[in-house]
Specification:
Layout: E1 2-5, E2 8-15, E3 22-26, H1 36-42, E4 50-54, H2 70-83, E5 89-94, H3 96-107, E6 112-118, H4 127-144, H5 153-161, H6 167-177, H7 190-199, H8 204-214, E7 231-236, H9 244-253, E8 257-262, H10 269-272, H11 274-287, H12 300-311, E9 317-320, E10 323-326
Parallel strand pairs: 3-4, 3-5, 5-6, 6-7, 7-8
Antiparallel strand pairs: 1-2, 2-4, 9-10
């Protein structure tokens, strides 16, 4: 389906019962990604919730219609919410979509029942550490001789800095980077990566604009302490690009947050540990009284969610501003 939102035609899909509470998923990777990973990750929620996924302007099947900025993307999310008459929503934002979710929360707080953040940051301050992580992994990645393009460090930095010169160069560079996103190089699936690349539509102009102008200038740290909406902040322990420290910073700043580190995940715990992730999201929805999947006492769904968390419990815990990050992806 398509909707004209603030001068851009956006592609979107709605899954589940339209009478159920709405969950809106914001994808990351402007110019690379699209709605499909959000649909894959969160489709299990459609038994109790209406799931809305869409492509940001300049991404996937949506129109190439500037301006491309965090502010515009947040305005588009609000425009789509109004277009679909969703009322109060929970927003889920991963990676760059997490930047947009924070932008949205600072502008449209009254429309939100809650926010789920996945592997994201409040500022670009972790960029240098991310590039250092990649630099340390590059030699082993090349030794493994994965079936991905053998990109140079210069090609890698052009993607990271938003200086890609064509869609094909963008495709090659991102494909060559994909081993970094796995929980470990041992767990990288080259065939799945190839299928992912073949499914995507690359728009290097969108990516360049977002990573040369929007991303370097964003800073949500002054605003997050004033956002009273409840947040679930999640991150994979082995995320190279938005590490756990970035999630801790966000959780520290928010007045009402829960921080969960998924110990067996990389950049995408919503897929790397999908069952545990969905169980924790369901628990968060119950905590904030969003929908009624577990209302009124322990039911089958609640037992399943608690069991999934118990399976992940470990003994090591660290405190983070009123939240407890426990080894295995559990907080209390």
């Amino acid at each position: 389906m398509r909707a004209e939102i603030d001068g851009a035609e956006l592609y979107y899909e709605v899954h589940g019962d339209p009478d159920d509470p709405a969950v809106v998923s914001l994808h990351g990777g402007p110019g690379i990604s699209d709605h499909s990973k959000g649909k894959q990750a969160f489709e299990p929620l459609t038994d109790e919730y209406q799931l809305v996924v869409y492509d940001h302007r300049g991404c996937g099947q949506s129109e190439l219609a500037p301006p491309y900025s965090n502010e515009q993307y947040a305005a588009d999310a609000e425009g789509l919410r109004q277009h679909l008459d969703l009322g109060e929503i929970v927003l889920i934002g991963g990676s760059y979509g997490g930047f947009i979710a924070q932008e949205y929360a600072t502008r449209y707080e009254d429309t939100l029942a809650g926010v789920v953040l996945r592997d994201t940051a409040a500022t670009p301050e972790f960029e240098e550490a991310a590039q250092q992580n990649a630099k340390e992994t590059f030699p082993e990645m090349k030794e493994r001789d994965f079936d991905v393009p053998d990109i140079s460090w210069e090609e890698f930095t052009r993607v990271m800095d938003g200086n890609v010169r064509s869609d094909e160069e963008f495709r090659r560079g991102f494909h060559g980077m994909l081993p970094l996103y796995a929980p470990s190089l041992d767990e990288f699936d080259a065939e799945a990566a190839r299928e992912q690349i073949e499914s995507l539509t690359f728009h290097h102009e969108t990516h360049n604009e977002m990573f040369t102008n929007a991303y370097p200038n964003m800073d949500y740290t002054p605003d997050l302490p004033d956002v009273s909406v409840p947040f679930l902040v999640t991150v994979g322990r082995h995320d190279w690009i938005t590490p756990p420290a970035a999630a801790v910073e966000i959780a520290d700043l928010l007045p009402d947050s829960r921080l969960v580190v998924f110990e067996s995940s990389g950049h995408s715990p919503n897929l790397d540990q999908q069952d545990q992730y969905i169980a924790r999201v369901r628990e968060f929805f119950a905590e904030i009284d969003y929908g009624t999947p577990y209302g009124g006492g322990a039911g089958d769904g609640e037992t399943e969610a608690n069991d999934a968390r118990a399976d992940e419990t470990g003994p090591d815990e660290t405190e983070a501003n009123g939240t407890t990050t426990a080894s295995g992806g559990v907080e209390s």
